[in-house]
Amino acid sequence: MKTTRFLTCQLAASLALSLLSAGQQEPQATPETGTVPAKPVMRDAATHDDLVIRTRQIEQEKIQPVFTPMENDPAKAYQPQDLISRSDILCFNGIATLVPKRAVIHVPKNMASRIGMQDGAKIVTWPDFLAANRNWVTTSPVSRPQAEGQMPLSEATVKSFEKESRLVVAVYEECPISVLPVQAPEANPNAASK
To answer: Span of the secretion signal (predicted)?
Structure first.
């Protein structure tokens, strides 16, 4: 029995040695090419600093487009004005709000003093101002084409303003909106020739 164990151990050791020595043999020429395959080149892994340096080099190599300003820059022609100059201010009882110019579409004579800022008034949002001043401010919903001046307000709406004692603000989706004057339809020269 001791002999069997000894032979088993010796056989296992010789098998392990033969496998190790087979893995360390020189590479043989392949029959297809007749050349010995090259050993893979082992390189050090890139460090964080190496990656940062390489990234900076790549970023510096990128060519940035150079923009030259035009003589008549269209962006300068349409610079937005400040918010106050583009707004009407409604103010009463110590609170005020901003609405776009042309959003107030009816002002009774007795309400004219409520347009403009008063000293010491606090600016609040439109919904808060409207809730606090429902007794003298009302809204009139308008469509997008009406606000853009493509369609006039209905005659019934305009006539209702004659009897209205409250200030009327045009709203689109419950927010104040400017109502531009109605544009006259342009005569189509092609329509006359047909």
So the answer is: 1-22
Token readout for 129 is 């101002």
Residues of the chain with pLDDT under 70: 1-34, 36-37, 63-66, 73-75, 185-194
Q: Sort strands 104-106 and 137-141 into parallel, antiparallel or unpaired.
A: unpaired
Separation between Cα atoms, residue 89 and residue 97, nearest integer Å = 6
| pLDDT attached to residue 26 | 58
What are the CA-CA distances from residue 115 to residues 81, 106, 135, 184 (Å)?
20, 12, 16, 30
Where in the chain are the domains?
84-176
In whole angstroms, what is the distance from residue 16 CA to residue 144 CA?
87
Q: Taking Cα atoms as reference points, which of 88, 80, 84 lies closest to residue 170? A: 88
Rounded distance between C-alpha atoms, residue 76 and residue 13, angstroms: 88
Q: Is the pTM for the entire model greater than 0.85?
A: no
What is the DSSP secondary structure assignment for residue 149, as one 8-state letter? Answer: T
Please report, for residues 52, 59, 60, 69, 174, the alpha-carbon distance to residue 64 in angstroms, rounded to integers and kept in the order given.
20, 10, 9, 16, 46
User: pLDDT by residue (tens digit) across 59-94?
Assistant: 887 766 667 777 776 667 777 778 888 999 999 999
Cβ atoms 130, 98 nearer than 8 A: no
